Amino acid sequence: AIVQGFTLRDGETGTSGTSASQKNTGGGFKADTDDAYLVECDVSHCAGKYGSPIYQGTAVRCLFDRNFGTGGPGGRGARLVNTVVTRSKPTGGSTATLHECRLYNCTVIDNATTWAVQTENDEIYNSLLLLSGNADIYRETNKVCRVENSVLSHTAPKSLWQVMGPLTGDWRLLNDSDAIGAGSADWLTGLNL
Predict the structure, then answer these.
(1) What is the pLDDT of residue 45?
(2) What angle do CA 150, 154, 157 make, to 5 degrees?
(3) Three-class secondary structure of residue 161 per DSSP
(4) Using CA atoms, how far apart are residues 189 and 193, in angstroms rounded to an integer?
(5) CA-only gyration radius of the chain, Å
């Protein structure tokens, strides 16, 4: 299934289902497999306990802006490709922007969370994580987070200015961004998009 070119706004999880995860997942988009695609969509102001903009599935060239929830206001259990995650807000519980996600060529910027990712087998490739304040990548005991060819920056104000215009939605890298030359095409071969 493919959802392409839509704006998904003000979505909220329902109350149907038998388990807590069925009732509270995917305020914007919910899938049961990576083969469900959200392509070139803007997902904003969505609420969900688990995965506010997306729960599972694959997002390609999307913008996730101002979503909120407890377990992944930037996404949970999803594969994100060339996607921007910005201004996510936790509403209690965990304070990580992303949970159990795989990021490829993504920009994660200006999120009001303590951790960029909650390390439960997260994978981050060729991505730029611009964190506010003392935010970091949280590494739980006995959990693995693979970060390859990516840049983590939280030195304000430079962290906000590694892209052209974060306040106007221009996410192109500046010429002197730490991410210039840091990526590798090797990580994209296994995507099967």
Answers:
(1) 93
(2) 120
(3) helix
(4) 10
(5) 15
